[in-house]
Write the structure tokens for this entry.
Amino acid sequence: MSEITNRDALIDRCDFFNFSKMIMREQKSAHKEAEQFLKQCNLTPFHAGHMVTLLRAGEGGLTLKELSDSAVCDKSNTSRVVADLESKGYLVRLKPKDGSQKKYRVALTDTGMEIARHISVRLRSLTEGIVRNLCDEDLETLVLLMEKMACSHKAGQCSADVTANTRTDIYE
């Protein structure tokens, strides 16, 4: 019989199933609250995620691969979302300077940016509600832990700053 370590007990308390249930519960609540606004714009939460990703990228936009990687979505679904958002007038394809069609970038239109800003403000409000009971120190710890967990899936691509407990924005 092996002895259960403190770490094993802690992992049992935050096992992936319970952890993901908590996140999904909050996400479900957020989706319900955002659903009415998204319906008015003829969008799904999936569209919204791609739009917020493009908003954070800035005016230069992203290539399809960059958008796919940043939105954590496969390229074929990202291509469908891009075509759909383009047909709605929320994003445009930016032609590369070298004239090739292969490495085009996509960026939000003014209307797309306005909608993405609204979505982003709402997401921030939901995040504030989720962490409202955390003091600043606990919130800082949570952010650092989330960054470390995200890095653990990048197999060595993690910034040394994050592993050294220095805050960096790993999502850029």
The domain at 6-133 is CATH 1.10.10.10 (Arc Repressor Mutant, subunit A). DSSP finds eight helices and three strands in the chain. Confidence is low (pLDDT under 50) at residues 159-172. The chain has two domains: 6-133, 134-172.
